Amino acid sequence: MRKLLTSRPARGAFLLASFTLLAAPVPSQQASGPIARYTIDAGTMSGMAAMAGGGGGMGAAMSMMMGGGRNQPLHELVLRLGSTRAPASGAPAADHFMPAGAGLGASVPLVTPRIVPSDDQPMPGERPKGRLLLFWGCGATPGAGQPVVIDFAKVAKGQMPPGLYMSGASIPQEWQIRASNSKTYGDWPNSQTRKTVPANASLLGDHRISGNYSPDIAFNLKQDFMPAITGTARAIAGGATILSWNSLPQATGYYAWTFGAKENGDMVWWASSATQAFGGPVWDWMSPAAVQKMIAQKIVMPPSQTSCTVPAAVTQAGGEMLMGSLYAYGPEANFTYPPRPADPKAVWKPEWIARVRYRANTMWMLNGPDMGSMMGQAGDNGDDAPTQQQQKKKKKCGGGLGGMLGSAMGVGC
User: Could you tell me which residues belong to the region Disordered (predicted)?
Assistant: First the structure.
């Protein structure tokens, strides 16, 4: 649910966004900040995440999954450049020159997006219907006070449920690059190029970012993409489901969630956190420092944990199938020029700073084929991997639960 969508949001997606309980970090800048800031967010996608990331969208991912399609992990890159300068001449222009192993050619363009006013208009007279049932925590049975039920019609009248509260998480603020906090901004992927990151791409080597609105940025990356997550979703007696996955050596922590929708408009949302913490930064790339703080607050699972049980009440309330996602947060690399002085009292005015963050994530249908089988790797998952992939009846994306899930999440088919 990344992040990630420009189409007109469906009613369900709007309501879900309205009830994001864990606020995203607020962008911040140093008073004497650098001229240019640059970020690389590098991800490894598996399961339905790889299918959707391959260009077919969530509808194609669900269609392939329901038909027993096989898939391989994919990589994703999100590049952002922000500067305090205007272009030296002409229109903004910048490029990221990649190592040959990235498989993206000599460079990719960082394009300054055009701001187009939205034509989305509220639908007059339409009253929201249905409910959102919130569950959280690993275990066969939900904890006290669950589920918290949010009636959309009541919320539209200003009536919030008494059991709903913020998680209280204090997340370290992490600087972000956006067009809104930059004099000139460019990013990739963009509409100017349709390149995709190859499955065998490598980030190792020299990187250089050059443009007409920022100083040249150059650094050498020694950390590559993270390995893929594979695993199983295994039903146990009583109706609960055990999620298990392979341990990633680079992982700093894990977070899982599931979401389901019924024809009557009800939706179910479960998160692996021990407290009410849904959405926000846990769906993003996060620094090891932020992850450590969230592990201490029992929002993120520690890197030593490789399983979590989804309560039976979640699968009972969610209907035929629930879509699930698992994130493994990874390391971070930071670069600056000139380097930060060793003397904390020395004046430091960097020309540029750069940050590279890593993560791996997978998506699956909770009561469908397991994560490993969807990637054609079920035999590599150890003793917990099933010996046979259970076949489900294929459904069209245009209707039924598949269409509902896509619509409710704002991704369409």
Answer: 372-399
